[in-house]
Amino acid sequence: MRGLTLGDAFGETWFFRPAETLETALVERRLKDGPWLWTDDTAMALSLLRILDRHGRVDQDALAAEFAGAYAADPYRCYGASMHDVLRAIGDGEPWPVVTRRQFDGMGSWGNGAAMRVAPLGAWFAGDLDTVVAEAVRSAEVTHAHPEATAGAVAVAVAAALSVRGVPGGELIEAVAARVPDGEVASRLRRATRFALSADPRHVAGMVGCGSLISAADTVPYAIWCAAANLDDVTEALWATALAGGDVDTTCAIVGGIVAARTGLAGVPEAWLAACEPLPSPLVMNPGQ
Ligand code: R7I
Ligand code: MG
């Protein structure tokens, strides 16, 4: 969870800088002064973690209510365009299956929002990959009805679980792809396996996208390649991920979540930890205990 937040907040600092200075700042590794504020990626991941803590699994009605409550309490976290309608309608008492299925002319959203929040779930269930897949699907459906959004969530959750289990970077992407249903996310994951893990992330982004379209397919395969290429060093992983631009808060949230599931925050510079907006403490409330 803390790796996801660090990536989210670090990634968000690369927006709103003049485009011509952005790549130079990244190449020269010029950090922005804190505070680095976290966004919807973190807000929704926290809600999901609270539900896992409270129910031991994804109770979809409880998760929908938790998402809507967090949104109502703090809507200024740069949520995806359709999430404002979705979370307000759920908060107003409309059933989530009705709300999510009517998005985008009945297709449901294929945005990357179900993938951006799910790495901690993969770590939570890391001992059982079938459960990781099933619970990732359930966590996605509450806001994203399109199968590509669900596939993106499955891919990230499985990657986080395999990260915990110590799978080497060279095997990670294919092992993830084997668990993802056929479609654009799976096909771009397979395309990403053609790049050496020493390749320049910008070249990989040129072939599979890096989130500029905010879709799961355009975001998740790149993030998983970046994580696989830097599985033992969360700071290096985040620098590499940001280099290509795109939806940087979300690609970095995904990568931070996957890599820190293995490494924790060991080795992260003190200045980064001090700059990152703190999470609520305790992370989860469990009034029953
Ligand atoms: O998926 P979602 O929660 O967005 C998450 C992203 C992350 O980068 C966050 O940090 C935040 O910045 O937003 O929210 P959605 O609004 O469901 O999806 C995001 C985008 O995906 C939408 O704005 C659309 O551009 C696109 N999109 C679609 N476009 C066409 N047809 C999603 N589904 C469709 C579709 O069916
Ligand atoms: Mg965000």
UniProtKB/TrEMBL annotation:
It comes from the Bacteria. The keyword Nucleotide-binding does not apply. Signal peptide: none annotated. One of its GO terms (molecular function) is hydrolase activity. Keywords: Hydrolase. The keyword DNA repair does not apply. This is Hydrolase. It comes from Actinoplanes lobatus.
